[in-house]
């Protein structure tokens, strides 16, 4: 799986705590091998994020992405659950 990052994702990623950056990298590595690994809790989103999907990074940290095709995706946002969905 080829992964691209929107500049919004990169900006928010750079503001994360060191431990959250490390966990995000681990999850993205796992995602590149198997996007639907149960650990990631990958699921589709609704509402303003229709056509996007979400993976869980930590208990409260989420990453939002969209498949571009079957071999490529772009991560567009990373933030806490409450900041993303409320």
TrEMBL record:
Keyword entries, A-Z: Toxin-antitoxin system
Domain of life: Bacteria
InterPro entries: RelE/ParE_toxin (IPR007712), RelE/ParE_toxin_dom_sf (IPR035093), Toxin_YafQ-like (IPR004386)
Record field: transmembrane: none
Coiled-coil region(s): none
Listed name of the protein: Type II toxin-antitoxin system mRNA interferase toxin, RelE/StbE family
Source species: bacterium (Candidatus Gribaldobacteria) CG08_land_8_20_14_0_20_39_15
Lineage of the organism: Bacteria, Candidatus Gribaldobacteria
């Amino acid at each position: 799986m080829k992964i691209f990052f929107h500049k919004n994702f990169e900006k928010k990623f750079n503001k994360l705590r060191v431990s959250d950056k490390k966990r995000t990298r681990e999850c993205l590595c796992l995602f590149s091998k198997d996007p639907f690994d149960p650990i990631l809790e990958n699921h589709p989103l609704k509402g303003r994020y229709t056509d996007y999907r979400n993976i869980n990074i930590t208990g409260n940290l989420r990453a939002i992405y969209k498949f571009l095709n079957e071999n490529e995706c772009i991560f567009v946002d990373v933030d806490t659950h409450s900041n993303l969905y409320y």
